[in-house]
Specification:
- By secondary structure, the chain is mainly α.
- It has one domain.
- Helix content is 60%, strand content 0%.
- It is built from 5 helices and no strands.
- Helix 1 crosses helix 4 and helix 4 packs parallel to helix 5.
- The longest helix has 28 residues.
Length: 133
């Protein structure tokens, strides 16, 4: 029995070469764009890894083949796709994605306050940007 590994070669899931720091002489706009691209790459990688961990490689492959994770870096679109597919279970998936992202960034999460996926990602984006300065 051979294990199947999810193909993440879909255009929306192409992994960037890494989360490198932008060149020191880059303009503020270039640096901001670089930060956004690096965060989008980190988020996409985290979404894919989380889905594989939570749902398994076969379900991840199915989601990718249907194009459902092509815009994983877009919180509103991912929320919509997950909600259409998993209903109320989508909130659990979103929480797990945020938990994994926060762990990667070394952010403590407060599970006692209400959860908002987009706001949680904004907080992570802010911390990520601050750490890259």
């Amino acid at each position: 029995m051979s294990e199947s590994v999810a193909d993440t070669s879909s255009p929306g899931l192409a992994r960037s070469p890494g989360y490198e720091r932008p060149a020191q002489n880059a303009s503020g706009e270039d640096r901001k764009l670089g930060d956004e691209k690096a965060f989008a790459s980190l988020l996409t990688d985290t979404v894919v890894e989380s889905m594989a961990d939570i749902l398994g490689e076969n379900v991840l492959s199915l989601l990718i083949s249907k194009g459902m994770l092509d815009n994983a870096e877009n919180p509103g679109e991912l929320e919509r796709q997950l909600s259409l597919t998993f209903g109320n279970g989508s909130v659990v998936l979103e929480r797990m994605i945020v938990k994994a992202l926060y762990r990667k960034l070394g952010i403590r999460s407060d599970s006692t306050i209400g959860f908002d996926y987009a706001k949680a990602l904004d907080a992570a984006r802010h911390v990520f940007g601050e750490r890259r300065k």
